[in-house]
Amino acid sequence: MKLGIVGLPNVGKSTLFNSLTKAGAESANYPFCTIDPNVGVVTVPDERLNVLGEMYHTKKIIPAAIEFVDIAGLVKGASKGEGLGNQFLANIREVDAIVHVVRCFEDSNIVHVDGSIDPLRDIETINLELIFSDIEILERRIAKAARAARNDKAIAKEVALMEKIKAHLEEGKMAKSFEDIADDEEAEWLCGYNLLTYKPVIFAANVLEDDLADDGAGNEKVQAVRDYAAREKSEVFVVCAQIEQEIAELDDDEKKMFLEDLGLSESGLEKLIKASYRILGLISYLTAGEPEVRAWTIKEGTKAPQAAGKIHTDFERGFIRAEIVSYTDLMECGTYAAAREKGLVRLEGKEYVVQDGDIILFRFNV
Ligand SMILES: Nc1nc2c(ncn2[C@@H]2O[C@H](COP(=O)(O)OP(=O)(O)O)[C@@H](O)[C@H]2O)c(=O)[nH]1
Ligand SMILES: [Mg+2]
To answer: Domain OBG-type G spans what residues (predicted)?
Structure first.
């Protein structure tokens, strides 16, 4: 999973990015590292992995991972190629979801590009750039398809759809809110355009330390972002990027105490990871053994063979069946053998929908 961090300059994107990747990089043994200064990998905290690791005397624990990209350079006019904006917009096109940082904190030492703190105005500014960029994408596609559309009904249908989406965007609306979809084919097309304004968004309301304890309830700017996000069916999480950076320096015990002092039960990183799993409809299944205990991220509703395909395409192609015990059942029984005796290790076939916390052994033949 890949998340892109966007927002106006000086809202706290890089501070957040640095704290996330620092906290994440140290937490585990992960085969990725920081790829370049703007791309970082964060592991997904999952207590179940440690418990399984002990049970199996595991040599290696591999948590699920999220890749973050710090996308700078989004300013008014970015879509018109001012500055490096357009290139940065291209970076966002590959992400699964957008983390949109909005400044809700006052600090006279830190300049705001538009002179005052107004998160809704800032959101509109960024959204407009994303919308312009999407319009351009559609225009290019329409121009390319126009000639073929004259002799091909399917292409003509698609061009008509693109025209409708474009008109929707030209009203200043996001592709996400486009509802005039006739059938599955059209839904698939819309999905395939990779439009920026079609991607799920999580707003990170960057606040002062004082606003953390009540989760921003006393800050009317945060409330404004919440109302906006609710209308858009987006998620919001309240964070103080500066504090997050301090937390990232601490070890686990210190971190817990520090959070308790602030009246918090989890760090911004944990909140963000949960929000992204929710908004993308993701769950984790697990594989466990002595060599390695590992979490695999899949979309809710994924069937066993496709889940197996996450590990290796051979597992999907040659899928025979899956041997599954749920994490809770395994914990209640204490050992795999005991779970098997109680009939809690199930054999599931191609139609089985994988659940969060399923511990799976795939049988395959290629
Ligand atoms: N007071 C305060 N300052 C912050 C916070 N987050 C970032 N800053 C400061 O705001 C400035 C811009 O932050 P930066 O992360 O570089 O913003 P970017 O341009 O969005 O990447 C820096 O001086 C940060 O130290 C915050 O939560 N509180
Ligand atoms: Mg930056």
So the answer is: 1-259
226 closest CA partner among 102, 92, 126, 70? 102
Q: Is 242 in the pocket of ligand 1 (CB under 6 A)?
A: yes
- The order of strands in the sheet holding 2-6 is 39-43, 65-70, 2-6, 97-103, 201-206, 235-239
d(CA 67, CA 56) in angstroms, rounded, equals 28
Closest CA to ligand 1's atom 23: 110
Residue 38 in contact with ligand 1 by CB distance below 6 A? no
Q: CB of 105 closer than 6 A to ligand 1?
A: yes
Look at the alpha carbons of 224, 230, 232, 238 in this order and tell me if their dihedral is positive or negative. positive
SS3 at position 363 = strand
pLDDT per residue over 336-360, tens digit each?
Answer: 999 999 999 999 999 999 999 999 9
The atom of ligand 1 lying closest to the CA of 8 is: 20
Tell me the pLDDT tens digit for each residue of 84-125. Answer: 556 667 778 889 999 999 999 988 888 888 888 999 999 999
